[in-house]
Design brief:
Distance between the termini: 114 Å
Strand content: under 5%
Keywords: Membrane, Transmembrane, Transmembrane helix
InterPro entries: DUF4153 (IPR025291)
Protein name: DUF4173 domain-containing protein
Structural class: mainly alpha
Oligomer: single chain
Order of helices and strands: HHHHHHHHHHHHHHHHHHHHHHH
Helix content: 55-70%
Organism: Dactylosporangium siamense
Number of strands: 0
Length: about 525
């Protein structure tokens, strides 16, 4: 085989074209181009940016103080004196944070925050005077909302709803914020000694708990002293303290974070709505108002009927009579609110005639809703007259009154040009409603009305009266002997053990005076006789 001849040095060499040329595809960079520049901002970066890099000393100390006060004072199993004390520690720490902030950086005013803080303590104080658990649960939920509004800056309806969600979200967002605050406090001049003092306090509390539990189990006299100061000192007590303290520290840090970095979620500037001409909204609103007026006019005998009317109406019971009125109220109120919101949003108000027409029609619609409110309350009164009072019936009546007040606020907002006060005022009206229920003392009121019915030989469910709280004991004490034993049997078991200072409650103290020992229902038929 002959060797392949090599080209001379320096000669140009040309390669033959490939038999199968390579197929070049499109450039991948053209298919998925890489976006240049910063990424799109997130919702938090747009509506809730973090304006403070680290928590200040007042936040750290306030969270620790609120946690210690709540852990030492809060009774988890019952309403009592410890609840307003714990709430006072929480709102007090947040008020200190507000006062130490630059006034230009505050998302809310000091007066408004203080007002919501007072409402929080007032709601939690219901547990000191009333033993009704259902009422206290409503007050605790409302107190959480008032704390959220005390640190929230929103004014619009979506922002008020979001305030309740913003507080726990802010608690989680505050964890790295608090961590950097601790790091900065350690690095600051003289802060190391402060941290050591706080660590010493924590170690002292731990030693106090451990050795106090050991000494209490070893000596009866020492155990009596410990029971007076720190009752139920067991192995589970430190875990309960840690749980309660962590919850209140979490809420304090979250509230402080909201004060330093206010959220505008749901409270941004509304985009300008497309307005419609006056006849485009007057026709549907006028038609609805006409149907509403005809319905009210035709149903006047039903809406304001008394007991005799209901009894002679075929197929109409008191239960259907009251429930129908309540749902009418709820639907009409929601419909009124929706119609007013849409009309105010869409209706053109450029001329005086358009503004007057809008206010007159929506005012008439609101006035018609107030008629239904009065009708529903009238119906509930007839229902209670026939069958007696209960917790649900009293609560429904209170809710109806609140809805009536809400409609009045809407009517006032139609006259007052600025309506940003309306959402928060509606919440404040609900707080006033709950406090009014607490002043009424609903369980005792229910017991008094039903005891009077029993004395007049009317039907009265004694078993239901036995399920009321200790607030009802003074009224139930007036029943005859057998019925009294049935009605007070469950209450006497609940108040048999004395409360410590954390769970001190006026209603239970009064009930314990009336029934100092457990009461046996005896031969009285103490069972549920009405459904």
């Amino acid at each position: 085989m002959q060797a392949q001849a090599r080209p001379p040095q320096g000669a140009l060499v040309t390669q033959p074209p490939p038999t199968h040329p390579q197929q070049l595809g499109p450039n991948p960079a053209l298919i998925n181009p890489v976006r240049l520049g910063p990424p799109n901002p997130t919702l938090f970066q747009q509506r809730w940016p973090q304006r403070s890099t680290a928590a200040g000393p007042e936040v750290l100390i306030g969270g620790l103080v609120a946690a210690v006060i709540a852990a030492a004072a809060l009774p988890l199993d019952r309403p009592g004196l410890g609840w307003p004390i714990a709430g006072l520690g929480l709102v007090g720490a947040l008020l200190v944070v507000i006062l130490r902030m630059d006034p230009k950086q505050r998302g809310t005013s000091v007066i408004e925050a203080a007002s919501w803080s007072v409402a929080t303590v007032a709601l939690l104080s219901v547990g000191v005077f009333r033993a009704a658990g259902w009422l206290f649960v409503l007050c605790v939920l409302a107190a959480f909302a008032t704390v959220a509004l005390s640190v929230g800056a929103g004014r619009r309806v979506p922002a008020v709803f979001m305030a309740v969600l913003n507080l726990p979200i802010a608690g989680f967002r505050s964890l790295p914020w608090v961590r950097w605050g601790i790091v900065r406090a350690r690095a600051a001049e003289g802060a190391s000694s402060t941290m050591r003092v706080l660590g010493s306090i924590g170690l002292g509390v731990l030693l106090l708990v451990v050795f106090g539990a050991l000494f209490a189990s070893a000596d009866a006299a020492f155990d009596h002293i410990v029971q007076t100061i720190l009752p139920d000192l067991s192995l589970a007590t430190p875990f309960r303290w840690a749980f309660v303290g962590a919850i209140f520290a979490f809420l304090t840090f979250g509230g402080a974070y909201l004060l330093h970095s206010p959220s505008t979620v749901g409270d941004g500037k509304r985009s300008p709505a497309r307005t419609v001409r006056w006849y485009e909204w007057v026709v549907p609103v006028g038609a609805l108002l006409l149907v509403f007026g005809i319905f009210v006019g035709v149903q006047i005998p039903v809406l304001f009927g008394d007991e005799e009317y209901v009894m002679r109406t075929a197929g109409l019971t008191f239960a259907d009579y009251a429930r129908k009125g309540f749902w009418q109220l709820l639907v009409v109120t929601l419909l009124t609110i929706v119609v007013i919101a849409v009309a105010v949003r869409k209706a053109a108000r450029e001329t005086t005639r358009e503004r007057v027409l809008l206010r007159v029609l929506l005012g008439l619609l609101s006035a018609g809703a107030l008629v239904v409110v009065a009708s529903a309350l009238w119906r509930m009164n007839a229902y209670e007259t026939a069958y007696g009072f209960s917790r649900l019936r009293v609560l429904v009546s209170a809710f109806e009154l609140w809805l009536g007040g809400l409609i009045v606020l809407i009517m006032i907002a139609g006259v007052v040009p600025v309506t940003r006060w309306l959402p928060r005022t509606a919440v404040a009206l609900w707080v006033i409603t709950l406090l009014g229920l607490a002043v009424l003392n609903p369980d005792r009121f229910i017991a008094e009305q039903n005891v009077a019915r029993y004395a007049n030989h009317n039907n009265s469910d004694i078993w239901y009266l036995s399920t009321l709280s200790a607030d009802a004991a003074p009224a139930l004490d007036k029943l005859p002997a057998d019925a009294r034993a049935c009605a007070l049997s469950q209450i006497s078991d609940e108040v048999h053990d004395a409360d410590d200072w954390r769970g001190w409650n006026l209603g239970r103290v009064e009930a314990r005076r009336i029934v100092p020992e457990p009461v046996d229902s005896g031969r009285f038929p103490c069972y549920r006789s009405y459904r």
